[in-house]
Amino acid sequence: MKIGCLTLDNITILAPLAGITNLPFRILAKEAGCALVCSEMISANGLVRGSKKTKQMLKSLPEEKPLSVQIFGSDPAVMAEAAQIVESSGANLIDINFGCSVKKVVKTGAGVALMQQLNNAEAIIKAVRKAVDIPLTIKIRTGWDSSGKQALKLSLLAEESGVDAIAVHPRTASQGFRGKAEWSIITAIKKAIAIPVIGNGDIVTAKDAIEMQRITGCDAVMIGRAAIGNPWIFSHVIALVRGNDILPIDITHRFEIMIKYFKMSVQCFGEKAACRMMRGRLGWFVKSLRFSSKFRESIKQISSENETIELINTYMETFEKCSLSVIPAKAGIYN
Ligand SMILES: Cc1cc2nc3c(=O)[nH]c(=O)nc-3n(C[C@H](O)[C@H](O)[C@H](O)COP(=O)(O)O)c2cc1C
């Protein structure tokens, strides 16, 4: 699978998830085999204004590469300048957000608002394309109605304007994340354009990813929510593509990954901020495990690195003592 000059190792791509796909999260996905990781959406205005907080979101490490950085905005000149900043930060690919349906973003004319302002969408794509040399992708929704006409129009226009691949999350603007993703829209776009199409939406298990590719013919699969607390979904998709079995995740490995995620977050954001973040996030990794509610309760107030590691280790020891293994209660943990 190629996106412009970039060759991906396999068909799996991490979806951009605001507030989640920061550097430590991306490293976990990468280590689990994900071929392309994506940043959270980053404000083009913030980058151009030189906001310290926004610029920090560009922080990356060689081991997560190739990295796609997603920007959002509504002004072609600002988007072009932001794209140059992203390119000079060492990102391997730029993605433009045409799908965000959050009110705060839509009312500025950015995100999915652009799917009903195709002239401005085209101006943005052309300005960004002219400004940078690295591959350019866009991420779109179905549009403002369920017909998919806006998605199709934007896809054709994007292809003509030099976009290298299109990620399609086939839900309407008003759907948010409710209802079902309409995979037939992915099929229609795949049939209409020659550049790669990345299918996204409602991949919950590795089998779903294989199904999406079989049904829609998409070139790659993008996984979002199912990767939260479950980076292994990427290795599971790869296993299935290769005709291998999906192996359960070793419980010790699961805890090691939690500690790694926490330690990387401390390095990246500092001890205090990382502890605050992890009060909710470590719980992602233990869903459906025995005693997980007790563990989640125990980490609600964590405030230091030592305390957090001790609590994770205590939870791990509880497992070892009971000689218990993972309870395969919910899909998502195993597949
Ligand atoms: C918490 C959260 C944050 C998201 N942030 C972004 C974002 O920054 N940019 C974007 O294009 N999509 C964003 N999305 C949408 C996802 O990338 C993806 O399209 C959607 O979740 C459907 O895929 P999934 O079913 O695999 O989760 C977000 C979704 C969620 C749940």
List keywords for this structure.
335 residues; alpha/beta; TIM Barrel; Non-ribosomal Peptide Synthetase Peptidyl Carrier Protein, Chain A; 2 domains; two-stranded antiparallel ribbon; 14 helices; 44% helix; disordered C terminus; binds flavin mononucleotide
Structure report:
The protein is an alpha/beta fold. It folds into two domains: 2-241, Alpha-Beta Barrel (TIM Barrel); 251-322, Non-ribosomal Peptide Synthetase Peptidyl Carrier Protein, Chain A (Orthogonal Bundle). Helices cover 44% and strands 15% of the residues. The chain contains 14 helices and ten strands. It has helices spanning 23-31, 44-49, 52-56, 76-88, 103-106, 118-131, 149-160, 183-192, 206-216, 233-241, 251-269, 271-281, 292-298, 305-322, and strands spanning 2-3, 6-7, 12-14, 37-43, 67-72, 93-98, 136-143, 165-172, 197-200, 220-223. An eight-stranded parallel sheet has the order 3-10-9-8-7-6-5-4. A two-stranded antiparallel sheet has the order 1-2. Helix 1 packs antiparallel against helix 11, helix 6 runs parallel beside helix 7 and helix 11 (251-269) packs antiparallel against helix 14 (305-322). The radius of gyration is 20 Å and the shape is globular. The two termini are 23 Å apart. Flavin mononucleotide (FMN) is lined by residues 15-18, 20, 40-41, 70, 97, 99-100, 139, 169, 177, 200-203, 223-226.
